[in-house]
Specification:
The protein is an alpha/beta fold and about 260 residues long. It contains nine helices and eight strands.
Length: about 260
Amino acid sequence: MIRFLIVAGWVILFLILSIPLLIAEWIIGKFNQPLKDRSSLAIVNWAFRGVIRLAGVNVIVLGEENVPKDTAVLYVGNHRSYFDIVLTYVRVPRPTGYVAKIEMAKAPLLSNWMRNLHCLFLDRDNIKQGLKIILAGVEKAKNGISICIFPEGTRNKVPDTFLPFHDGSFKVAEKAGIPVIPMSIVNSAAIYEDHFPKMKKATVVIEYGKPVYIKDLDKETRKNIGAYFQGIISETYFKNKAKYFPEDGAGASQA
């Protein structure tokens, strides 16, 4: 519980003390948007690295060389923990907007930083709004902003399982012509969700797959695009689960 309080205190302190930075970023954005994008990315990455250190997370990263540095991409991954966002965001090589639930847009200060990072707020109960989010994501991708989405649509609470991947999650890549980067995240729930409200040290394995252009896939695969990428991520997930946590998670987290 002490670890949780320390991490929560760090986040709250950052948000409060970053108010002058938000003002500065707003001014910078009026004159130089690319500079604002880079500086906001650097500031938030610094804060997230602090969260990771204070939470005692050891991260094993595989396949990072598969992420292109010269183009925007669509990251897609399995989702078991709030830490999935923190752990993957510090790895992005360029400004990246995450697709988040619309309730996050109401979070004071946090939502300001999310908007600075080009995050998109999705109302899962509003199909019309969802189409607008896809179009907004396409526009951002065409302007060099990567997008990250968790195609399960919500955090999966059952260990070692996957909720169906929504086909619509891949429309941004298809319409913008950017590659999809599959992300497999293993053991992130061991940090917090598996023993809420306690926060414990844990090892997390993240593997980035090779880029996939949807236009290069056959028609049948494109019709079942969610299942296709779920298969890629699932295969990588269980490979790394067996390699790094051979006792089925026993010992994966520490008090």
